[in-house]
Design a protein that fits this description.
Helix content: 40-55%
Largest sheet: none
Number of domains: 1
Distance between the termini: 20 Å
Oligomer: single chain
Number of strands: 0
Radius of gyration: 11 Å
Strand content: under 5%
Shape: globular
């Protein structure tokens, strides 16, 4: 899980994090190459955040 900053909000995941790492950590499959970067996936799917991507996958 992501840690929180001083005001209690979750820290943003770095955009250069590999999707494969996220898929393992959150037990989701985005259907893309595991070496794709999070920033690229966010742009491709038009999502604002990792949370949006994960919520979308669990629908």
């Amino acid at each position: 899980m992501r840690s929180r900053n001083e005001n209690g909000r979750l820290r943003q995941k770095r955009s250069d994090t590999h999707v494969g790492t996220i898929e393992q950590e959150y037990k989701v499959d985005f259907g893309v190459r595991s070496d794709m970067e999070l920033g690229t996936l966010l742009k491709k799917d038009g999502a604002q955040s990792l949370s949006d991507l994960i919520k979308d996958k669990h629908k």
